[in-house]
Amino acid sequence: MLCCMPGVAFVPALLVSWSSAAFIISYAIAVLAGHVEPLVPYISDTGTKPPESGVFGFMINISALLAAITMYIRYLLIEKQNESSHFVRSSCNVFTLCVGLMGCTGMGIVATFQELAVPSVHDIGALVAFGSGVVYITLQSIISYKSCPRWNTYFVCHIRMAISVISCFAFIPMIVFASKISMTKIDWTPGEKDYTYHFMSAICEWTVAFGFIFFFLTFIRDFQRFSVRISTEIHED
To answer: Where is the chain membrane-spanning (predicted)?
Structure first.
């Protein structure tokens, strides 16, 4: 089905499906193995102990690569559209790409350095991944509005901005509640110390993560109209 998609739409489609599978499979294995409680664990908690840690690390690293490819193609699309419309500065497009690639690097750090093994490095990677991701989708939402009505509909722009706003509002309490947790552990149970902070922070984390997934889902229609040659030149179909 992905191969039959026109243009390069299969790239964000693969990113969305692969990333969703990474979260769901790791969660299912961790819960079935009894390593985490089923009620809203941290995403990283579901990829800390073997065997789910291997699955989580492998799949999230692939997701980071797919996200980087998607962001680069998006950059090329905007550059091509901007040749005739001039709706955004090229420097702004480059900056947005760099922010997105920082987020992909953070994802790689999260997947490589386990939460309990190297917590400080893992936390830095998570902060970079989520922080850069929120900034990236916000900038992309603004660029989308600037490209209306020729390259985007206002309906799609409203959806992207709504996802960005929700992700921003979820990101802030995620950091605040996480900072109040006084211990590093994955086997949380209701009623123990700091559980409420953990629970609220985890809800916000899942909200931001799936906000990214739904945001990239909106790229599929844009990518259907374009194809990328090996020379990296982009042409409208």
So the answer is: 54-73, 94-112, 124-143, 155-177, 197-220
Q: Are 102 and 67 in contact (CB under 8 A)?
A: no
Reference 212, options 22, 29, 5; nearest CA is: 22
pLDDT at 183 (0 to 100): 82
Give the chain's end-to-end CA distance (angstroms, integer). 20
What is the DSSP-derived secondary structure letter of residue 118? S
Distance CA 208, CA 134 (A): 8
**pTM for the model:** 0.91
Query: What's the token pair of residue 188?
Result: 């949380």
* 192 in any annotated domain: yes
Is residue 4, in this structure, part of any structural domain at all? no
Q: List phi, psi (to 5°) of 232.
A: 70, 10
Structural domain including 60 reads 9-224
Q: How far apart are CA 62 and CA 18, in angstroms?
A: 8
In total, the chain counts a number of residues equal to 237
Q: Name the phi and psi angles at 91, rounded to 5.
A: -65, -35
**DSSP-derived 3-state class of residue 201:** helix
Which residues lie below 8 Å from residue 191, measured CB to CB, with a gap of 6+?
none
Q: Is residue 237 part of a domain?
A: no
Phi, psi of 184 (to 5 degrees): -110, 110
The whole-angstrom separation of Cα 214 and Cα 97 is: 19
**What is the rounded CA–CA span in Å between residue 185 and residue 139?**
34
pLDDT digits (tens, 9 = 90+) for 107-151: 999 999 988 888 889 999 999 999 999 999 999 999 999 998 888
Question: Based on the structure, what is the number of domains in the chain?
Answer: 1
For 207, the token pair is: 């909200």
